Amino acid sequence: MSAAAVPRLPWFARVLVAFVRRELAALGGYRMAFVIRVLGFGLAIGSLLFLSRFVGAAVNPHLALYRGNYLGFVVIGLLGTEFQQVGVSVLAQRIRMAQVMGTLEAEVATPAAPWMVLGAPPVYEFVVAAIRSAAYLLGAKLILGLDLSHANWSSLLVAVPLIVAAFSGLGLLAAATTMLVRRLNPVAMVIGSLSFFLSGVMYPVTVLPAWLREVGRLLPLTHALAVLRGALLVGAGPGDLRQSLLALLVFAGALAPVGAGMFAYALRRARIDGSLSHY
Amino acid sequence: MIVVEGLGKVFQSPAGLRDMLRGRLFGKPVTALADVSFVIEPGEIACVMGPNGAGKSTLVRILGGLLLPSSGRARVAGIDAGAGTAEFRRRVAFVVGDERSFHYRVTGRGNLHYFAALHGLPVAVARRRAGELLERVGLGAAADRRYQEYSRGMRQRLAIARGLLGDPQVLLLDEPTLGLDPKGARDLRAFLREEIIRGAGRTAIVCSNDPGEARAMSDRVLFLEAGRLHASTSPDRIEAELGL
User: Which of A11, A101, A117 faces B120 most closely, judged by CB atoms?
Assistant: First the structure.
């Protein structure tokens, strides 16, 4: 069968499968790094347990909305941040690495459309991040006694695609910027720092002054965390979370086309200035 | 067939401190190619020669659709090289001798499987084709070794195998024997010319700095100097005409 006859989605599925196989083959050489990463996250969760005991011991009105469950609050905050990190950083990092290594030029010289070449890594990383997050939540529940008894899983099912779409849009913007400036990801640095400060990762946004809360509402992570915590800790249904879900929908609807357009421009610039293979 | 008409390429160099202080966004423009025109007939093998910085790599990258020209145009296998269509990338393969273009921790076979997927080949076809090509380029026994364990010659051969995955009409080879020992280079040239290009009726452009390579592989030599086409001659005449 010639490539010309292959519809695009099955073609992308083949690229994705080949990409995953390649990643897994390469992963064999990074076993120690994998173990260290798991250990690192385990230690982080362990330290959160003691932090939650310390914070949870006090009567804290800011945590009342979350049934005083600081452990759940902060674990979800960190997992949401990691999800954002995957979206904002992975595509940009992969492109920069592929530019530096020289693989990008060889990949875009194939008949596959650039979106197939560059779409496989984020899809793979989001799936891995989702599996990792589920494992961490399960681990936190079994080992640390994280209370997920009120979770509303249907809200989660509605929220996750919107969160992924919003973060992917940001990722396209970040990747385009990285290609254009040929430096490490400036968008990820700015968005990452602002989100950690204003989105309520470690503390509820209610502790922020009102004007800072308003600034925080301009960040997708703020709404992603509101939805994830509402669904997992409070058991809120999609109707209760509609404001944040709508905000995520707007972010996804605005960022994805803008990011895709900017990325197409960056790719064209790379073909003009010869930076597909650049180091 | 390759038709090149008035091709030019000017790169904007990054602005230095002095440029920025003068309010300029870019440094002095660098002309890599200027008004280059030629035609390569179907089945012909042309060797592009010239000193370092003459514009050889820029030319083949434009012909491979990886770089957009600043002026002029190039049609390769009947399609405008700047169009960037999938059909163009199917008909034209750019074989780069750059050993950085593979994944180091993956086997030669694994690398080819990945690129076969980018060519849209179904898994079973991809496996069969990768196996055939690895045998054909003499890497059958080393197919399941990691790329990082390959010698330079093996890496070049794997790059050629990758270029053939889509069975292209036109091959663009950028210094295919770079860094190989004399015997390895001689064998690879004969293999490329007789089996990969002539044997399959392909058209090819080979970039090289080596007059011996031009004589052994090509029907015609295009000599670039400072981005301009200085001469177009027969390989037998390069010593007389170009002093090489």
Answer: A11
